[in-house]
Design brief:
This protein has 288 residues and is an all-alpha fold. The chain has helices spanning 3-14, 20-45, 56-94, 102-148, 154-206, 211-251, 256-261, 266-286.
Amino acid sequence: MTSTKYLVCLVARAFGYNRKNTHMAEAAEETHLLKEAESHLGKAMWENVEGIEALTVEYWNLRKLVKEHDRVAAELESQQKQLAEAHEERASLLGISTEPYQHLLDERQMVLNSLEELARQRDLIVVKAQEIRRAYDGTKTKEEVLTNEGMSDERDFSVITHRLTDLKTQFAELRAERQDVMKKIADRDIKVNTIDSEILELKRERRMKASEAFQHIGDANQEISTLRAELGVMDTQMRQLYTEIGKYVSRNTKDSECRKASKEMQWLVEVMGALRKSILFNHKLSGQ
């Protein structure tokens, strides 16, 4: 929304023509676009922000994550190649198709995909729990300092006590959620092992020499699942860092280092500035 359109909408609202829901929807859509733009900008120019002191943590974390991401991606490619070779070896040993137990292979892959998703859930829970723990420690320290300093405003202490109780409750809920996820992971691990045993038994019955090749397939699939889960977690962390960098640079256009870092993406910075202005206008028109 441009300034001119905003003024027109203000005039229209003065005459009773108010599209509150429309403005709220537009603001929500533009906010989503802005976040996407922040992530895209950060990804495109993060290597240029080494000299920006405010982004030191994000830059060096990204340096570390990118290197680790490349390593895991290369390992994943290697494992996939080994898996393909193991499949060829197994087919050669058996001299027949995998049809008799293909349904088990499909079921096994579904379980592994589920394990991959559960691993991501577990890692996100751990991150949330760590954040709550830090907040709890900070609040607890605040309570101790105020007590030692003799500042006994009961209203302040009531707020602190309520905050500590709320953080404990959140932490307990996350712990229970993590335990539930870990149980599901354990159950699926058992399911994978059960499927592996069934497949191995079928293979022994058909050709004993194929057992070693199939074990390689099982190991490779397990490793591939683990590596994909690792990449998923790193992708999430990198997107968050890209977004923080893009947000900071696009909001500090007067800073010479920011302008220098985003020089080739200046068009996007300008678009983001227009989006922020439009979001503000839509919020005002919707009464927020």
